[in-house]
Each structure stands twice: as C-alpha cells, then as structure tokens.
C-alpha cells in the first residue's frame, strides 16, 4: 500500500520483484495518481498529456518490470491524504486487502520515509485497516535508513562532480534534502539482501521518468545499483498476524 507512483520502486522494488519471481501473487494499491508532484518532462511534453495520466502509465510500466500484474490506482487527491475522508481511505485499503486475501501487507513506517504527510497517512490508515480485520494479514513497514539516500547523492556527485547545488542531481524523486530519509526512523527488524533484483529495481525506478529529470537516481548504473540499492529494510508491526512469515525465510536466504 503506497501513496504515489514511484514509491513502490524505490522503497520495495527488490522485494516485490523477488516475490513475483517466486510465484507469489503481488498486488499493488496506490492511493493517488501523484498529480501534484514535480513534472520533470520537457515543456512541450507537459502540455501534451496531464501528469496524472502520465504517472498512471509509468506506474503500470514499473509494475510490469517488477512482475506485478494486479495494480489498483485510486483517485484520492495527491498531497491531501491526511485531510481526506479517512473512513473512505481506510475502507479502500480494507477492501483491497480482503479482495486479494493478502497474507502479508507492506506500507510505510511511521516516519513516512522522509516525513511525507501522504506517506504517514498511508501508514496510519493501513495500520488501522489491518488492526480492524478478523484474521488479519501480517503487516510490515518499509523504511529507508539514514544515510542510504545520501550515499546515492554522493555517487551522483562523483559522476558529475561540478554540479551546482541548485541542480536536480542533488534531489531524489523531488526530495531536495537527502538527509530527510531515515531521520528518526524506527529501527527495522528485517533486512533483505535484494542484490539479485537491483537491476529490475533500477529499471522500475527509471519507468518514472516524469519524476526523474536530472535526479541523482539517474546516475545509477546496474553496477552501482547493486551496491546502493542492495538492501531493503522492514519493521514488523505489532498489529496484524504475528509469528513467522515467508519474509523471514527470504531474510535467511539472503544472508
């Protein structure tokens, strides 16, 4: 359960691709079209197709790369999830969990990766939805530890060492402060080595061209991605089904 197109690729692209490869049914619920996000397309293309349509297409392309064939994209307003109809938002999440008979649910941790209000709202509503279910799935929160995104920006700096601070190679998917990622984030309980899937994770990230432009992520190569995108971190929620899940087996296999 993610808030915007591109969240799935950066946060959990490795795990999602891994699950799809194993034959696990992966369903993606995206709560908004990201229509109010930055638009890094060339100006002539910005006028050709509205951003919401472009981002919907990019999401489906990224999902295809990751092996996800069940994508639900909702029309909650981008940037307004904390102030939307929370009952409807939670009901939409609950309906998708029930429809897919989910065994494991992923969403943001309480820090929203970098304290993004939409991400935090997705965390809160998904947690509430799982807690209210009878026979609920296991719930995991994805987090990006402090320093992870800073390392990606540092890599971009080595490739383009003379860029000015105002240039977008300093940003990651529109976030201008890479140190916001992971600041005061809860400690993860599960680390997955997704090195075998960083190529696909990088390909999925690149599907979101409207958000990239000269972004630091564009300077990643398959070789550098195998190092900088190789570990994904999750925290087990204290709501939902407890006990071991197949993610624990993946963690053991990845060590």
From TrEMBL:
InterPro entries: GlcNAc_PI_deacetylase-related, LmbE-like_dom_sf. It holds the Pfam family PIG-L. One of its GO terms (molecular function) is hydrolase activity, acting on carbon-nitrogen (but not peptide) bonds, in linear amides. PANTHER family: N-ACETYLGLUCOSAMINYL-PHOSPHATIDYLINOSITOL DE-N-ACETYLASE, N-ACETYLGLUCOSAMINYL-PHOSPHATIDYLINOSITOL DE-N-ACETYLASE-RELATED. This is GlcNAc-PI de-N-acetylase. It comes from marine metagenome. The lineage of its organism: unclassified sequences, metagenomes, ecological metagenomes.
